[in-house]
Design a protein that fits this description.
Helix content: 25-40%
Strand content: 25-35%
CATH class of the largest domain: Alpha Beta
Number of helices: 8
Number of domains: 2
CATH topology of the largest domain: Rossmann fold
Distance between the termini: 17 Å
Structural class: alpha/beta
Strand order of the largest sheet: 8-7-6-9-10-13
Number of strands: 13
Largest sheet: 6 strands, mixed
Amino acid sequence: MPLQTETLKKSVGPTTSFALQEIFYSVPWRASGVQAGSHKTKRRGTGSDFASFVPLLDHPDPKRLDVRASLKTIPKQLMVRTFYERSAIKVFVVNDLSSSMRFVGKLDKASLLQEIVATIAWSTVRQGDAFGMFSCHDDVLENCLIAPCSRLSVAQESQQCLSTFFSQSELTSHSALAMPLVANKIGFQKSLVFLISDFHWSEELLKQTLQALSGHDVVPIVLWDQAEFDDLPEWGWAKVKEMETGLQRSLFMRPALHKSIREYAQSRKNALRQLSQQYCARAPFFVQSYFDAVALTHHLLGA
């Protein structure tokens, strides 16, 4: 599948650029919006998705007359074909901007977050849908919000908004306690929601967030760094820091502890999958080395 690309300058860190690859998505539910788009709806109209045959008097449109269906009716009456309309949907990204999202190891989570959000924004507008963004740590951040829109510049706006946050916000400890509150701001109309975080949360917070968003089509995108779990020494002293509390301590690494950390990572991965299934979200998409737009497309279409 050919992917469109566009180059977007990053305004934080060294002067570099990343290519925005277009992702593709589909939704297994019928949209309820009124703006014309590409997604199936339950609303009868002039679309191309066949709905049913109805009597001509119920739907007076002679252009849709079907002779074969009319001949099969008893008693005989003229039948016409009806179709469903297609409409656009709203696509949101919900960003976790807690302190752990500043982690830099094999990759820079802050830069990776900007790349993923900008790619989703660009792809959403190209497919005729509306893109919106919410960001949280201990609070829902009003200065890092984008109302649903279809502006061609929204990809750059979202990237610049996140870049400004990471470059100007104070390096204080923040958790992700406000994540469940976003559901009230998204509203009740079913939308496609990309929930982007490293998900280093308590199980209770994860359950509250997924339950609050359970009325939407939620796609968890998990940003993990190999330096967090895999690339640890088997022997020797290591200094570790809890990003969201600021606490530091020294650990004497040994094979048993190394194995325990990797087993914990696997158990967290399994728990994310199980809770996503329990609260009717899609399977999590894990990003550990780099962002692969083709893999995300396959994940979205396969789901």
